[in-house]
Request: fold
Amino acid sequence: MTSKRTKLREYFVKFLGFSTLISVLLGFVVAYIVFVKLNVLSGDMLSDLESLSKMGEFFGGIVGPIWALAGVILFYLALIYQRKELELQREELFETRKIMDSQSRTIEIQQFENTFFQLLEFHLSASSRIESQETGNGFDVMYKAFTKAVNDTKKRRKKDGSSEILDEEAFETCFRQVYDSYRNTISHYMESYKSLIYLVAEKSKDPNFYINIIKPHLTEQEVLLQFYYLITYNKDEKFKEIVENYGLFERLNFRSVQAIDRLHLDELKKSAYQPTKLATTDKKDSED
Reply:
């Protein structure tokens, strides 16, 4: 439809230009016929004021309107070309704006990725320090210490004649013992990790892409520590929601959790243990 209008407009402009040319030529033709062919400007007529007056009226009534029409057409053509120039300027401004928006988005992405990879490197450095401790892999050591604390608590309860089934408060106490023993190490690690995850969840245009960059760097021992940190100690609802939305516990070792208490797996939605895309899909389905 737009192309048809454009073609019709082009034809109309050509018609107006042709009409202007015809009008101007017609005026010259009339003047040529009157002055040359009819030889109206003879010596007698030049001395006759009445005849000159009639000649002026003739030109004013015949040639004048023709050239006036030509002037009107030229003025209209000027308006059309001016409008066309304005449209071209508008298109150029629109293209310039698109380029600027694209550059702005590119700069925004670059700034985000610079921050993301700096935080990722910072987090990996903290993780590496824990894994390379003199006593061995710090994450594994902390898990074993937590398991021992849980088992010791169960043994004491059994000895006292109490139930061996631990409640939420008892598990929190056990984990807090481990956390306090390794506070400087684990608090620094978890804060750097949460900062990285929050950045991706809140600032990224494509969180799934960056979450999938982070996941391969997480060991089973790390994910296990993060799991118990979340459900027994920190209990941050915002962090919990992100975990469930993007399947951050996909690499969680279920057997290690079940060795302590299998009911802990029910603390989070199933999406927390799924691949990122599936977790995101489940989130959308639940919202619908």
User: Anything to note?
Assistant: The mean pLDDT is 79. The CA atoms of residues 110 and 180 lie 39 Å apart.
